[in-house]
């Protein structure tokens, strides 16, 4: 059989986690929390399952959850939206990204993405018959060169995908970025997919800027969010997309033939969580900032150069003072010889950069972070 994605193999996350398990290494590679989901969320999941809420939900999501998402958008971003017309619950943010990409991409279309880029973007674009146009961001700033973006736009360009707070660089887009982005979208009549799965994890009293705060941007955008990141339940695979009604209609046409609907007991539990313990979201940035600071402090005596983490639960380290190995080889060395698993940043690029940078996940217990840092400081 001829492969539709011949260049793809096992994901870096699966590979590094498997290697970490094989060598009994501390796993700071794959981006999942080491701690559990909130007690209320788990209790309500069990409750609704026991009460028999185990059949299909409406394809776009149960009404109480849609309404709570709309209330969250209003509270955080001061935008009034119609829950029934704009909010679609999905089986994880990756499904939402896939569906949004399928909705906007026709054969021959070009979609602009920014490297280092989350690895699901390009395969989804290719499966839709489109082509990903890569624009590289450079260490240590990982800033977008908007003049370069302007020069990359052609008559085939259909849309742009942004991600802020950004995985894997842990940087956030600023007001000036959104001003430049909006000018290009309007000038060329382009669509936007905004990957905001880490929206509630922004640091140093600098709030996340969402596309939902700008009505002109939102009118041409799909905004993707993740309950898994917000409530420490990545294994539930629960996310959602907020889009204006015309775009939501096209999104739902495809969503209904991908998963049709998402896990019903989890939707009901999430609606209760948003209703009764919304403070969890308000406290999330401070929670993860403390984790970041524990790891940064523990690494101060190391030979790594620590790059700023403005959001997400990731931290980048430059190891150029330690080794001449490429980042993949260095990460394999770290697992096998040092006992810490990390992710090489080059895998997020189309063209491998010369940077010697790795990514650590600090969504771990403090003792895990300190133990991993001690091993890294031994280099």
TrEMBL record:
Annotated Gene Ontology MF terms? transaminase activity
InterPro entries linked: Aminotransferase_I/II_large, Kynurenine-oxoglutarate_AT, PyrdxlP-dep_Trfase, PyrdxlP-dep_Trfase_major, PyrdxlP-dep_Trfase_small
Q: What is this protein called?
A: Aminotransferase class I/II-fold pyridoxal phosphate-dependent enzyme
Task: Report the cofactors.
Answer: pyridoxal 5'-phosphate
- Write down the PANTHER family for this protein, in alphabetical order: FI04487P (PTHR43807:SF20)
Q: Which UniProt keywords apply?
A: Aminotransferase, Pyridoxal phosphate, Transferase
Carries keyword Transferase?
A: yes
Q: Which Gene3D superfamilies match?
A: Aspartate Aminotransferase, domain 1, Type I PLP-dependent aspartate aminotransferase-like (Major domain)
All residue ranges annotated as the Aminotransferase class I/classII large domain in the record = 25-375
